[in-house]
Amino acid sequence: MTAVNAGELRRALAAVLPHVGDDFTLPILTCIQVTRDATHLTFEATDRYSFAAYRIPVAEGDPWRFLMHGSDAKELLARVTALSKPPPLCDAECCEDSDYPAHYPLMRVHCEDGWLSVTGALRAVRYATAADYGLFPVTTKLFADAEAAPGQVGEILLNLALLAKFASDQQWNEPALLQFGEGPLKSVRVTIGDRFTGLLMPVKPSEVQS
């Protein structure tokens, strides 16, 4: 099982859920992909216009990949949020040494036989995979194109509603770093802190209404 602080798990879910799609003709985009590799537990979501990934450092363990229904992710977020609130008597000093102090309980996340189990301070819950929806989009090439490019890139049109998704949870204390690719139609890379990365698709000039 993978041990994760409840406060960190809440932040990961809250960071990617705004980017889950609502087009049910593309059900794969209504899901969150949860991936466990040798060193990180990663949560990813996309609606085709924006992409979000939150990576939590974890102890070494066996890799797995799970496709989670967006509705299940929202339900889990509500459960974890109830656990990850500091106690009423907690003052600023008790929280200054860590983003996720000891009073945030440890959760254990495990994937096996198409089920994701979450145990710990809350009643054990299990979620069925949405793997029959297909394969989650591969974004490696998009991230490569969005790497900072030398020189000027000219004008880039951005949808402010999509940009606002990256701040919708209002949980960030760090500024957002925007990296523009080579050309006005390349994705913009959004980096916040050392655990969140995202992509923002630019608006094509032909889509702008005069």
Describe this entry's structure for a reader.
The chain is α+β, with helices and mostly antiparallel strands and 210 residues long. It has two domains: 2-133, DNA Polymerase III, Chain A, domain 2 (Roll); 140-207, no CATH class. It is 19% helix and 30% strand. It has five helices and eleven strands, in the order βαββββααβββααβββ. It has helices at residues 6-16, 70-83, 92-95, 140-145, 160-164, and strands at 2-5, 31-36, 40-46, 50-57, 64-69, 106-112, 115-119, 125-128, 176-180, 188-192, 196-200. The strands form two sheets. Strands 5-2-3-4-11-10-9 form a seven-stranded antiparallel β-sheet. A hairpin with a 5-residue loop joins strand 7 and strand 8. Helix 1 packs antiparallel against helix 2. The longest helix is centred in the middle third of the chain and has 14 residues, at 70-83. The termini are far apart.
CATH topology of the largest domain: DNA Polymerase III, Chain A, domain 2
Round the mean pLDDT to the nearest integer and report it: 80
CATH-level-2 architecture of the largest domain: Roll
Number of domains: 2
- Tell me, briefly, the overall form: globular
Strand content: 25-35%
Task: Classify the oligomer.
Answer: single chain
What level of helicity do the residues show?
A: 10-25%
Please work out how many helical segments DSSP would assign: 5
What is the helix/strand order? Answer: EHEEEEHHEEEHHEEE
